[in-house]
Design goal:
Layout (H helix, E strand, L loop, with lengths): L5 E6 L5 H13 L3 E6 L9 H8 L10 H6 L2 H6 L3 E7 L1 H9 L5 H8 L4 E5 L3 H5 L1 H12 L3 E2 L3 E4 L5 E5 L3 H12 L8 E6 L4 E4 L2 E3 L6 H12 L3 E6 L11 E4 L3 H11 L4 E4 L6 E3 L19 E3 L3 H6 L8 E8 L3 H12 L3 E6 L11 E2 L1 E5 L2 E4 L3 E2 H16 L1
Parallel strand pairs: 1-2, 1-3, 3-4, 4-5, 8-11, 8-13, 11-12, 13-16, 16-17
Antiparallel strand pairs: 6-7, 9-10, 14-15, 17-19, 18-21, 19-20
Helix pairs in contact: 1-2, 1-9, 5-8, 10-14
The structure holds cytidine-5'-triphosphate (CTP).
Length: 397
């Protein structure tokens, strides 16, 4: 599976760097080519000689090595691999990545690369849990960076908790997953998800009960099949999907702008529960309670993102999939919605409170297309997502 895959392995400065020597060996055993890059701090823990001896390739260590630049420039080096792996990824290198620093070879390669990036963090538990590190992890996830670990356990510094770098074989498994080719490899797919929040004033907003679980599951399933997923989400509770490029928005208007900036795509899946209306004149300051006076809100209609994209004259995605959340006459309403909005498929579901679907873990959907209505049995949202992703792959084949 890894035969002839090219891995650019960046080894940063942490005690876990010794495990990266074994990682190189495991990757080579599986037929992968490993081009190692050692940061200055990394070279304090493992020697360039042992790294290059195990990799069977030259180790790159310094941005300003003119011999290397003549041989292979750092831009070319950053793009020569199928996957960039950072193991161990230190708090410092992750901070550089999250903030776009490029002041040594490793950070410059990470800025210049157009290749997927997998990081295996390794640091003290307090550092991993520090708010600055949490922010950086979330930024990196949003940028589509994949993570493996860290694991929980005893640490070299004597403390216990999450922060230990994953074991070499766990990293190998994550590399195999990241490089897995699927029927959607090379396809770019947009998924909208979650609710939108429409402000009333700076502290109040109108929202809905969508958790974002179904959209997140769909994004994950598409990624598993190899798609390059852009996930545009409102403020949702669900975890963000690993490996997808995440764009966070708040309002329907922001979601529409984000969707426009993501096009063109091969398919667009609109799973978001977009608010139909916004407060026409949201107040810039908090509306104060006044004795006996109850404020009234004026509404304006939000743009219909699904209809806008479905009806694009140029650049319309070849496959546009909408959702129909209904409480009555589900099939009739969803069928009419598909024709009105002009999307290709509608995934209809009954969100009446007694179904427990909105905010729950299961879904019972009907797929409506030109071929008619196809009822799927009630199943977990992950299973709905996988089945839908397989259908999308078949449609784009
Ligand atoms: N949708 C959208 N933009 C909107 C409203 C809805 O993109 N402003 C999309 C949703 O993401 C979903 C589909 O349209 O894919 C249908 O959403 P739904 O809430 O069921 O339908 P509405 O258009 O809001 O119609 P109604 O509320 O009358 O059922």
């Amino acid at each position: 599976m890894l035969t002839d895959k090219r891995i650019l392995l960046i080894i940063a400065g942490g005690i876990a760097a010794f495990k990266s020597l074994d990682l190189i060996r495991r990757l080579r055993e599986r037929g992968a080519w490993v081009t190692p890059v050692l940061t200055a701090a990394g070279a304090e823990f493992v020697t360039p000689l042992s790294v290059s001896a195990l990799a069977g390739e030259k180790v790159y260590t310094d941005l300003f090595d003119l011999t290397d630049e003549a041989d292979m420039g750092h831009i070319q080096l950053s793009r020569s691999a199928d996957l960039v792996v950072v193991a161990p990824a230190t708090a410092d290198l992750m901070a550089k990545m999250a903030n776009g620093h490029a002041n040594d070879l490793a950070s410059t390669l990470l800025m210049a690369t157009d290749t997927p990036v997998l990081v295996a963090p390794a640091m003290n538990v307090r550092m991993w849990e520090h708010p600055a590190c949490r922010r950086n992890v979330s930024t990196l996830r949003g940028d589509g960076v994949m993570f493996v670990g860290p694991n929980e356990g005893d640490m070299a510094c004597g403390e216990y908790g999450p922060g230990r770098m994953s074991e070499p074989l766990e990293i190998v498994a994550a590399i195999e997953t990241a490089l897995a080719e699927g029927p959607l490899t090379g396809r770019r797919i947009l998924v909208t998800s979650g609710p939108t929040h429409e402000p009333i004033d700076p502290v109040r907003y109108i929202a809905n009960r969508s958790s974002g679980a179904q959209g997140t599951a769909i994004a994950r399933a598409l990624t598993t099949l190899g798609a390059d997923v852009v996930f545009v989400t409102g403020p949702a509770d669900a975890d963000r999907p690993e490996g997808a490029h995440v764009v966070e928005v708040e309002t329907a208007a922001e979601m529409l702008d984000a969707v426009h900036s993501v096009l063109p795509v091969d398919a667009a899946i609109f799973a978001a529960a977009v608010a139909d209306w916004r407060v026409a004149s949201a107040s810039g300051s908090k509306i104060k309670k006044q004795a006996g006076a109850i404020p009234s809100l004026d509404f304006a209609e939000n743009p219909d993102i699904l209809a806008t994209v479905s009806q694009m004259q140029t650049g319309r995605p070849p496959l546009v999939v909408g959702f129909a959340a209904e409480t009555d006459d589900v099939i009739a309403n969803a069928t009419a919605k598909r024709l009105r909005k002009q999307c290709d498929w509608i995934v209809a579901n009954d969100v009446s409170p007694e179904t427990g679907i909105m905010g729950g873990t299961e879904n019972a959907v009907t797929l409506i297309s030109d071929d008619g209505a196809e009822h799927w049995p009630r199943m977990g949202k992950d299973d709905v997502a996988h089945q839908l992703a397989e259908r999308i792959a078949a449609a784009l084949a």
